[in-house]
Amino acid sequence: MRSPISLLMLITLFLLSCHLRTQAQNTNPAQPPTHLYIDVHYLEPGKVTYAAVADAHRKDLAVEDKYGVKFVKFWVDEAGGKVYCLSSAPDTDAIKKTHAEAHGLMPGSIYLVTDGAEAVADPGKDFYLDVHKVGPGKVTAGAAAEAHKKDLATQKKYGVNFVNYWVNEQDGVILCLSQAADSTDVLKTHKEAHGLMPEYIIKVKQGN
Questions:
Q1: Residue 10 falls within a domain, yes or no?
Q2: N or C: at which end does the chain have fewer Cβ atoms within 10 angstroms?
Q3: Model pTM?
Q4: Whether residues 88 and 137 fall in one domain
Q5: Same domain, 136 and 106
Q6: Core vs surface per residue 99-109: b (16+ CB within 10 A) or e
């Protein structure tokens, strides 16, 4: 038979463990699931500079934690006035709130995406972003992965380095990031690999 002192000690330890468990739950609340997004800013052609976008990006980084966002990379099309931002976030509202508070430059499009396996970038080559718009519901992540494999099998012939790709199944959009001496080399690779040609291809500067 247990003594009263032993029982008291057991009860005390049990209550203490319950208190510590509750305290841990309160200090580490469950985080909402995050998703990968690319948001696109359509600005005035020729009026966007990499330096200005890098400054806006720094402001995003200063605010992002407040809304559970993590900005990963960005790409700037200085000639066309487009900016592409890659981030992980709980939802599109979190991205909009971060941009709004950080600098007020709001995106015109936000795509929920899945990505591929990222390759190592060559610091000596220019970046190109080509965008395929095949139509809502007309592409799957699996189909895009198969096309990407064909690109990788062909890229050396034209001196191209495909770095990564992102797929939005709902809108049927695929964005491919590559490096090459010229945009025509990227197009030649796509044409020979699988014949799926982008709606447009642009030279971009990358930041992170």
A1: no
A2: N
A3: 0.84
A4: no
A5: no
A6: beebbebebee
Note the pLDDT of residue 33: 84
* Residue 199 domain boundaries: 116-208
Q: Which two tokens stand for residue 200?
A: 């447009």
Q: With CA atoms as reference, report the closest residue to 76 among 207, 182, 176.
A: 207
pLDDT at 38 over 60: yes
Pick the more confident residue, 16 or 67: 67
CA dist 53 and 55 (Å) reads: 5
**Local structure of 25: helix, strand or coil:** helix
Mean per-residue pLDDT for 51-58?
98
d(CA 150, CA 124): 24
User: Cα-flanking dihedrals φ and ψ of residue 132, to 5°?
Assistant: -105, 130
36 and 108, same domain (yes or no)? yes
Number of domains in the chain: 2
Looking at the fold, whether 86 and 146 belong to one and the same domain comes out as no
Quote the tokens at residue 47. Answer: 């009026």
Give mean pLDDT, residues 77-103: 98
